[in-house]
Structures are given as structure tokens and as C-alpha cells.
Write a structure and sequence with these properties.
four-stranded parallel sheet, 235 residues, globular, alpha/beta, Rossmann fold, 2 domains
Length: 235
């Protein structure tokens, strides 16, 4: 058996997405009893400043100061890897990683590599994400690095994405399927072979609706990396 490593999680962005992340880690860990699951420290920091707003306004310090305390706390508690189930926050990943010697799992990079493995014939990838993630091009760069062409929704359909995330999921609703379908059709009509769910609120949405087979959820990739890097077996 591989050496077990304690996993640190900076969550609360949003709280329901963190809950689903934890449930998926438990569900996908091959374990016959409690002791075969991985040790985790989850900080559900719901009061964390909004990531998209920090990017949009350029006022990054409140967010960075908040997350630095979390990173240092997890390091002090003996965590050997850190997972952040929030796509938009990965824009700040270089600065976050510089705050600690503990490796922070790069969900964006791992998702791009997963698309190449799972959809080897894919050329174009549609990105469903917050305005913050779209505007910074974090997924665009990683997809291009593995030879894929990133495609974002039209401005009108991006409004649907943001409404689905903020007006529906973050407000506690399951989400309006019609909004998702409009965005999915927009991306596939533009030649996308794969549609990437690049926001953890969309991961929550996926729990309530059956989505097309060519949709890949970035949170699922983070879950697998979290389990494997902690020394457990993914199932």
C-alpha cells in the first residue's frame, strides 16, 4: 500500500460544491472500512471574498490574505497536498503556491491532460465557467498547451452560465436545465467536441441532471488527483 498522506482542502467556494467534493472523494476511494479512507482537513471558508470580483476589480489582496492563512494552517496541521475545489481561484495559483511548500493540486492543468486522455480525437473544447475564469484565460492556456482549441460561449450564453452559477446554484437551487442546454447547444454548434464544466457549481448541477457523455467535470479530475496523491486507490 502506498504511503498515506493527509489532504488539506480549502473549501467554502461555495459551500455546497465543497460538500459534493467531499462526498465524491469518499465515494471514489477504494476502502473496505473507515481506516482505509484518507485523512482530510477541510476548511470551509465560506466568507472568502468572491474570486470573480477580485479578478474583475483588481482588488486581490483581501482574497490572497484570507487564503494565505488557510494555506499556512493546513501546512501546520501536517497536510501533504492541498486541493481547492474552486476553478476561478486557480487564477491565483502561482501566488498561492508561493505561500507554502505543500503542493497545491492544479485542477486546471490536470483537467486539460484528462481531456487529451479521454477524448483523444477532440479538437475544440467548450468552456463553461465564471466570467473570472473566462476573462483570465486560465483554461485557455492549459488547453492550448496540450494542443486543444478553447472555445467560450457567446456573450449572451455566458450570461446564462453566470445566472446558472450565481442565481441558481449558489442560491441553493438545483439549476435551470434550459440555461445549461442553451449554452451546450451554443458550444457544440461552434464545433466543440467536448464541453468542460469548469466551475464547481456546475459540478453540483451535474448531480441533479443527466448530462451528455462529452461533458467533462473538472471537479471529477480534482477528486481523482486528491485520492491518488493521498496514497489511496481510486475506484
Amino acid at each position: 500500500m502506498a504511503e498515506r498522506k493527509k489532504l488539506g482542502v480549502i473549501g467554502g467556494m461555495g459551500p455546497e460544491a465543497t460538500s459534493f467534493y467531499y462526498a465524491r472523494v469518499i465515494a471514489h476511494t477504494a476502502a473496505a472500512g473507515d481506516q482505509e479512507h484518507i485523512d482530510m482537513v477541510i476548511l470551509s471558508h465560506a466568507s472568502m471574498p468572491d474570486r470573480t470580483e477580485a479578478i474583475r476589480t483588481g482588488k486581490e489582496e483581501p482574497f490572497l490574505q484570507s487564503i494565505e492563512k488557510d494555506v499556512q494552517a493546513l501546512e501546520a496541521l501536517g497536510c501533504k497536498n492541498i486541493a481547492i475545489p474552486c476553478n476561478t481561484s486557480h487564477y491565483f495559483l502561482p501566488k498561492i503556491q508561493a505561500m507554502t511548500n505543500v503542493p497545491v493540486i492544479n485542477m486546471i492543468q490536470e483537467s486539460a491532460k484528462a481531456i487529451k486522455r479521454r477524448f483523444p480525437e477532440a479538437v475544440k473544447v467548450g468552456i463553461m465557467a465564471t466570467d473570472g475564469t473566462i476573462s483570465t484565460g486560465t483554461y485557455h492556456r492549459e488547453l492550448e498547451n496540450v494542443g486543444l482549441i478553447p472555445v467560450e460561449p457567446s456573450p449572451e450564453r455566458q450570461k446564462d452560465v453566470m445566472s446558472l452559477i450565481y442565481d441558481d446554484i449558489k442560491a441553493g437551487d438545483h439549476g435551470d436545465r434550459r440555461k445549461f442546454d442553451r449554452v451546450y447547444a451554443d458550444l457544440t454548434d461552434n464545433g466543440c467536441d467536448v464541453v468542460l464544466l469548469a466551475c464547481t457549481e456546475l459540478s453540483v448541477f451535474k448531480e441533479y441532471y443527466q448530462l451528455p457523455d462529452n461533458c467533462l467535470d473538472a471537479m471529477d479530475i480534482l477528486v481523482k488527483e486528491s485520492i491518488v496523491r493521498s496514497g489511496a486507490r481510486y475506484r
